[in-house]
Amino acid sequence: MSMSGEWEEQIRAALGEIPCELVIRDVDIVLCGAGKVAKGDIAVHRGTIVGMLEHYEAQREMDGEGMYALPGFIDGHIHLESSMLTFCEFSKLAVPHGTTALVCDPHEIANVCGLSGIEELMREAASVPLSVFFTAPSCVPATPLETSGARLDASQLEPLIVRDEVVGLAELMNMAGAIHRDPEVMLKVRAARRVHKRVDGHCPLLSGKQLNAYMMAGPSSDHESTLPEEALEKLEKGMWVMIREGSVSKNMEEVLGGLLDAHVDMRRCMLVSDDRHPLDIRKRGYFEGVLTRAIEMGVEPVEAVAMVSLNPAQYFNLDGFGEIAVGKRADIVLTDGLEDISIQRVLVGGKEVASNGKMLADVPSYRFSPALRDTVRLPPLTESSFAVRTHAEDTTRVRVIGVLEDSLITESLRWELPVVDGEIREDVDADVLRIAVVHRHGKTDSIGLGFVRGFGLNGGTIGSTVAHDSHNLVLVGARKRDMLVAAQHLASVGGGFVAVRDGDVVASLQLELAGLMTTASSEEVSTGLDELHRVVAGWGCPLSSPFMTLSFMCLPPIPHLKLTDVGLVEDFSLVSLEVSSL
């Protein structure tokens, strides 16, 4: 049937001239646009809601008595690659939890594989039973203070940003470039504005006139607020605020709590994940627990639901999505309550795709290009590659990265460390360990070396080829030998996570696609990650997500002290490791 024929048929169904394909009877409908709940029927024909509240004849009926109908959840900011899953496997995990649409920034795979990596994900996304929208990565690499596997300039982004499934320019991490009108940054923003698409922001701790200038450069949202006063200023100045509650960075309690205290209107607020790993989703759900907690904190239930449906749909101009309303796509989540969210059934485009936490729809597999499986190309390494040399004697004072639980922000600490034979040594008793970032894209032999506090390891090394955003190889440990073994292992399997102790690989998780993702199921990834967490916890690590925390030690756009393959970075500048010799 042609589109016009389908449309006319839907109008006839709305008039009651023909039976609708599906009618959900006697359900409590969450009307985000009206800010209320109303009881009645929902009529669906050819994937679209054609009628509500009135009685309709149906080819198939679904009893909604005692249930609430919510619009399908939209994650307005996520990096799919951080789940370590493909879209096929992620959809099997996310959809039963009520998430029916994603807005993905594929800058992780872009930093490794460039445009070809983005296009690969786009092709796969077209085959899954949830709607996937993209934002075009704006900062590949995130800063000039690191070496990525690829670079994307404005000329490469222009043909990408005009595509229908691309809804904007992704988070503009180059704050200085935006504020000081860097020509390349301006070209990227103009490319988005030319086709009337959003520019997502990324501006942690930015305020005052600098925030004004950043907003004038184009960004209209931000997901990096960690303090309520930060989020409040952005809202007051006209930004949309994405409140992040992910697997590592958990900002909802503080930020949302502060906004509630300030009695702000939540219409320009969203709840997003940014980064979620499958073990977290399998244990705690996707948005269900987040919504339940938001409601417990004092957000009105309908308003909370809008923060993961109508609000992101309106921000990104997703016209057919975000609410249960006539003419909208029939993405519907049925729950047995509204204040304590427990999902019973999920419909996507009017078809039931999940029930009681189980996926019903078939999800086709996707064959990835072999080029994505050969991305870990390390320089020649020996144990001495990880030695931190100094001219100091006995001791020296150094900068140390201070890890903060549930935050991407780190502290910039100062610590006195011992010097033995011209080498700065770790201090395991004080939880000051070695950290190394090894270039892994085959372009340079660069290795950044430093020290970190907060991982709590009493021995062993952990390593990862997931290392935001350039995704070089990052290692934290106490012994150079273990760091070498970890690096060699990850190179041999094409990337992933590893835990090494006394020269032996104790646990690992292979991520063979760009060193970021795997074709394995969410169950397999969760089992592997759980084992890694168990091993590392046994070595004294107090962190709930040690490998995701590790992956953010290399992200210079986030304050305060980070390490890249080029060296230590603080406030967008390279800084020395040693502060002074004592």
Automatic annotation (TrEMBL):
Range of residues in the leader sequence: none
Record EC number: 3.5.4.2
Keyword Metal-binding: no
Keyword line: Hydrolase, Manganese
Enzyme class: hydrolase
Stretches assigned to the Adenine deaminase C-terminal domain: 408-570
GO molecular function: adenine deaminase activity
Gene Ontology BP, a term: adenine catabolic process
Record-annotated Amidohydrolase-related domain positions: 68-353
Alphabetical list of NCBIfam families matching this protein: ade (TIGR01178)
Family affiliation: Belongs to the metallo-dependent hydrolases superfamily. Adenine deaminase family.
Protein name: Adenine deaminase
Organismal lineage: Archaea, Methanobacteriati, Methanobacteriota, Stenosarchaea group, Methanomicrobia
